[in-house]
Write a structure and sequence with these properties.
The protein is an alpha+beta fold and 151 residues long. The chain is built from one helix and six strands, in the order αββββββ. The strands form two sheets. It has a four-stranded antiparallel sheet with strand order 1-2-5-6, with helices on one face. Strand 1 (80-87) and strand 2 (90-102) form a beta hairpin. It is rod-shaped, with a radius of gyration of 37 Å. The model has no long low-confidence stretch (mean pLDDT 89). It comes from Pseudoalteromonas xiamenensis.
Length: 151
């Protein structure tokens, strides 16, 4: 009869090695860090877009008010205009300096056979606008047209 000898099997350790755990940890940490940065950048972009939209909305009504004010005050002989105002948390201050003033050429009257001088003088204003909302200031520079009716 043959005898079989049972040899004990070599016991293998099961589980992960230290190197495998460290590599997995580095990969996981990197993935979490990148995800956090992407989320942070997306949040900041969203906040900035909201601020810009709020600024643009307020700016439109402000520019309309400045335009009306300049057109009304162009009837005077002043060469410098200024104003300021507040809407909600939006503050603005503007200064307009007369850049150029001109009248259209005289108009020919066929009934009298002579040239009639223009009754209106046009004014080009250089406007510097400073706006402030939530502690952030922005400056704008533009031109606005006004006119002066001569009597």
């Amino acid at each position: 009869m043959t005898q079989f000898q049972i040899k004990p099997r070599k016991k293998r350790d099961t589980g992960f090695t230290l190197i495998e755990v460290l590599v997995a940890s580095v990969i996981l940490f990197s993935a979490v860090s990148v995800s956090a940065l992407i989320y942070r950048n997306a949040t900041m972009a969203s906040i900035k877009a909201t601020e810009t939209l709020s600024f643009a909305t307020q700016l439109k009504s402000t520019l309309s008010a400045i335009e009306d004010d300049i057109r009304v005050r162009s009837q005077s002989t002043d060469t410098k205009l200024s104003g300021q105002g507040t809407e909600d948390h939006f503050q603005y201050r503007w200064i307009a300096v007369l850049a150029e003033q001109a009248s259209p050429p005289p108009r020919f009257d066929p009934d009298t056979g002579s040239f009639l001088p223009a009754k209106r003088s046009y004014k080009l204003w250089h406007v510097e606008l400073t706006t402030t909302i939530a502690g952030k200031s922005k400056e704008y520079d533009f031109y606005e047209m006004g006119w002066h009716d001569e009597k």
